[in-house]
């Protein structure tokens, strides 16, 4: 469904056959030959044909994986119930708004004080265009989307030891690097130094291309002139009326760009997972969780902490505690179980599964991540600096400042993401701090990039994912070795239990991974049920 | 106001002084030295201090230039009246929706048949983030904005004579070009062929950078592997559950990219005027014109075609015809006149101005441009091809196919821009066709890129700007030579008349040029009025 229209469906069958007969390397060569641009694991709404004969399924967790399973299994004729730890649906699909309260591990409770209409998404916050399953559920469930700006050319790169600590515009670093690299290559080409690698025929065309792509002048040089200014921006913008001629600025020297290491950030704009067009739900990421819950909310028992999972030849029995009455554990049973509990939690529960699955569950550490939302009196990043959405990057511990991608150009208060730490020592350091201290440090560091912080800051909220009771971490962190040893074992059905979630996917930390994993798990479960 | 917060306003004064004393070259060096990133001609709401002593101004044209002048001059205390050719405000700021009728030169009348809620903007359709004046008026007048996607990595490049005519994904051409160029440069660097140009110290860092930026593997090669796939996209996307490992696709050879000339389109994504974050008004570009008209609509006389402009020492007299009663011309007078009539029209009117201004008015030809909107039964570009917004480029006469940047991921009908010709022979060819024929050809050509056109097309509408009675062309087309000879003369006040509009700016065809030109014109006019 997502492929080129010129490709009839039968090509897929052909490819599957090639894959089965000759292996994946042969398959991808065949795919290329057949003109396949991209192959998603999502083939449109899942089809679970055949009679489940009254079978029941207990789903653990009402995140996107759990609610996908609930939605599709009920539709296929199963008796479904869902146990959810939190008092809300969505799991990591979560949005914090003014008035929201939450307590982290260690006991600290925060109340978000944002003005009405402002929010942050502490978990997932963007949806790539190629996450076809998420997009299809958004469509089917009526979740409105708007663009998420990943690359804003006018946002900033900041290296504390370079350029006197002054932030640089992304457009300048990006253009100046590309321009000077093009000049180097053009010169080498002209001097015949690439004659072994580039045919005589291609040489002239390569020069033309580098000139166009690198904003070079007629001498194949990248310089301070109106040619480069049309790409990097002007020192004085073209205007209207008299005295309106534009003036170019001075490029940043290649050597300074290299030394600053700012080039590291450029790949954040080129990676397939961050390419345009990205999306966010209008109003907050939890619009997706809420939309699922409108469909399957009647199946979910909230505030239910799973304590033990047992299975035998006849079914699955789960012991759980109600948050309001934890002293009196409850039990429920079903024929089958789809368990979406994060491995960080699941590895600590008594669980009747085979040694291979148990080893897999224990093999995956969880990524540390911290997000901090800050409210300011005004959207100074737009008003003073013409930064509308997107992300600034820094080598300071806050790593990123992400500007809101909604409510552009409005007066009044604004909330930005004042820190987004993902992996690394800084994430652990910030996790170790008390919530108020995290916010204070984000404001302190951020002021090096935006001096307005001092005068404009109002309040903040922080989520350190290793202190979040329902995940104890942000997402499964697979190494190649762990994947080779354990991944298939993690995904295989073990008796009457199958696991699902982003941890059971090749898309860790992405909602698409959670949904695709769930669809694959229930498809295999259903096949087993129908066959028995 | 739009500059780095670290720059106190006094720098501007200093720069103006340097500019005045030592010229613009010295000024731009000083600007760079002082850390100025960008200097807009827009300094925030215009200040017209001083008493106009009851002076009256007649404004010709209720486009953005004219309405800006009306808004600000009335606020400054002038008696203002506006004559407008059309029966609506906005001029080229125009949106076509279902039910709209318009007649072009030659007499052909089209009625737009789009479904309610769907539209095209035949004139301006995007607002760069550095068009500070447009953005500020949007803010002051309450016009909501949403992102305009210029670069969609998953949109298409199409060269009829390359790749068997099969469209290529932008992300693949862009990544494969950048990767192979990086590989060439990395190899040359390793072989010591750049030793004159790159210091020993920078060499190692340059290699690291090229590896990161070019998606090179550990051997500094750009190949079919998961390194390149993370940037160009996968042959098989990473998925969830079993059999979910990703597979890379085969890069397009550099030589084939060069031959296809698809690289020409890459600069459309890098140019400052097209960089992220761009905007469009929610609901159509004419939301801006309508917002202005809410403020100054009471000053505008619609359906008024200017026939003659006279001036003497005492004032300006304009003869005009009412569209409903053209046989009985009317007259109106004022102390001063701001004339925003396009030069293509103005050059044909009897006009009392000096030889220099007259020569300037006659010196500027108008760009030819054609836009064609097409309605389809469904948003197949999203549903079949995962193209959400952005633009596909082709060497066919339609040049561009631009997908709607609103209503993403919805079911139901959609309208795309099926052709956007700007300059060149194709624009004239399409202008010469009858409206229905233009639409038919856009559908025929477009089907080479999107075969779904055949089954899904419903109706279309086309605007050929050289046939639009109120502009007779799209925008002023300045050469460097014409600008040198005539631009200042065009902008200078001639007696009691001053010109404004995009044609009197260094931002031809942009709304920002119209507004900045108008602000500059009324500022100078006001200075003159206050001094007399």
Biggest interface reads: A-B, 135 and 134 residues
Helix percentage of chain A = 25-40%
Strand content of chain A: 15-25%
The computed structural class of chain A is alpha/beta
Q: Report strand order across the widest sheet of chain A.
A: 13-2-1-17-23
The first-to-last residue Cα distance of chain A is 32 Å
Number of beta strands of chain A: 23
Walk me through this protein's architecture.
Two copies of one chain form a homodimer. Chain A has helices at 10-22, 24-33, 64-75, 132-141, 170-190, 200-214, 226-232, 254-260, 286-296, 343-346, 355-362, 380-383, 425-432, 435-446, 453-456, 480-491, 511-531, and strands spanning 56-60, 79-83, 96-97, 101-103, 109-111, 119-120, 145-148, 156-158, 168-169, 234-236, 247-248, 278-281, 300-301, 304-312, 315-322, 325-334, 336-339, 369-376, 390-394, 400-403, 414-422, 457-464, 497-499. With 532 residues, the first copy, chain A, is α/β, with parallel strands linked by helices. In chain A, the strands form eight sheets. Chain A has a five-stranded parallel β-sheet with strand order 13-2-1-17-23, covered by helices on one side. In chain A, strands 9-8-19-20 form a four-stranded mixed β-sheet. A three-stranded antiparallel β-sheet of chain A has the order 14-15-16, with no helix packed on it. In chain A, helix 5 packs antiparallel against helix 6. Chains A and B meet through helix 2, helix 4, strand 7, helix 5 and helix 6 of A and helix 2, helix 4, strand 7, helix 5 and helix 6 of B.
